[in-house]
Amino acid sequence: MARRGYVQLVNGFYTNDKVQELCRSGHMDAIGAFCMALTYCGDHLTDGFIPRRTMRFVIGATDEQLQALCDVGMLEEVEEGWIIHDYLKHNRSMEQVMHVRKKTADRVAKYRETTDVTALRADCNGVTSGQTPEHQNTRTPKKEKEEYSSSFSKEISITDFEQAREKAHANSEIIKAYPDLDLLDSWNAFAAHHHSETRTVTDWCRQWKGWCERRAKMSGIPPSKPHVHSWQCSHVLAALHRTLETAQPDQTACQLADQLNKKGNNHGNKRQ
Questions:
Q1: DSSP 134-146
Q2: How confident is the model at residue 62 (pLDDT cuts 50, 70, 90)?
Q3: Is 94 helix (H, G, I), strand (E, B) or coil?
Q4: CA nearest to 7, candidates 87, 91, 88
Q5: Which of 89, 156, 204, 272 has the least CB density, counted as fewest CB within 10 Å?
Q6: Which residues of 24-41 are buried (b: 16+ CB within 10 A; e: fewer)?
Q7: CA dihedral 135, 136, 142, 144 (to 10 degrees)
Q8: 255 near 263, Cβ under 8 Å?
Q9: Residue 10: which residues within 8 A CB-CB, separation 6 or more?
């Protein structure tokens, strides 16, 4: 089964001199073999190398196709197989991909650690005080003013939006919904596509989150499944300062778990 992800194929691929030469010489099928080899390298993080056995029996390339690709310089034959010419010029190396994955995993872990427990403790305070989250006054005049200003602000460039606090908030939502998405790569593509545009912060946020959602779907990245809280889940235990040994299904723990599940469902409905 193929891994999630993609390789780069520039829009001008069809105008490339080597590709045009293959077309004119009647080797269109060799281009198909090349594209399959390209995706194999991206899937297995081989840095552009395809072993002989793989090229023959997985890609299914023929001697004629391989010779045609080598003749125009799209493939380079080596002792153990073939290397795609300039693969690392257009695609990330295995080392770079693994580095980005680690940074993403660390960022997701840090986000969950700093946000979930803080939010749960706030909800816990509401439970122990007899208040429900919807009856707690969490909106200050300053916050309302900031939200109003953000929603109706003047149009700004993509560069200004990158520095806006609303983008950081949007990033947090995206990471929570799609933890496996390469956010940096998505932003680079988004910024390049919208580099000359100006929008309001609200519109930028909507466009950015929609872009990431579509990119995740195209890459086969499913949204994260919501956690179902219970009286003994780690979130409730952390909020109540309990451990598995001291956990008990009392009213406080069950009520907190129920409120957290309702809160998660409400957020999910809003996103839909």
A1: GGS----HHHHHH
A2: very high
A3: helix
A4: 91
A5: 272
A6: eeebeebbebbeebbebb
A7: -30
A8: no
A9: 90
Which sign does the torsion angle of CA 95, 98, 103, 104 carry?
A: positive
Rounded-to-integer distance, Cα 30 and Cα 22, Å: 8
Question: Which residues lie below 8 Å from residue 186, measured CB to CB, with a gap of 6+?
Answer: 211, 212, 215
**b or e along 90-113 (b: 16 or more beta carbons within 10 Å of the residue's beta carbon)?**
ebbeeeebeeeeeebeebbeeeee
For residue 81, what is the DSSP state? Answer: E
CA 199/CA 204 separation, integer angstroms: 6
- The beta-carbon contacts of 168-175 under 8 Å, at least 24 apart in sequence, are 169/205, 170/205, 170/208, 170/209, 172/111, 172/115, 173/209, 174/208, 174/209, 174/212, 175/104, 175/107, 175/108, 175/111
The one-letter code for the residue type at 175 is: I
Q: Which tens digit of pLDDT belongs to each residue from 210-263?
A: 999 998 888 888 887 767 888 888 888 888 888 877 888 888 888 888 888 887
Dist. CA 211–CA 34, nearest whole Å: 29
Residue with tokens 């700093």: 114
Helical H segments across the chain, by residue range: 17-24, 28-44, 52-54, 63-72, 87-90, 94-129, 141-151, 158-163, 165-177, 183-193, 201-218, 234-239, 251-271
Structure tokens at 159: 């560069």
What confidence tens digit (pLDDT) does each residue in 187-218 have?
988 988 888 888 888 889 889 999 999 988 88
Q: How far is CA 115 from CA 17, 107, 177, in A?
A: 52, 12, 14
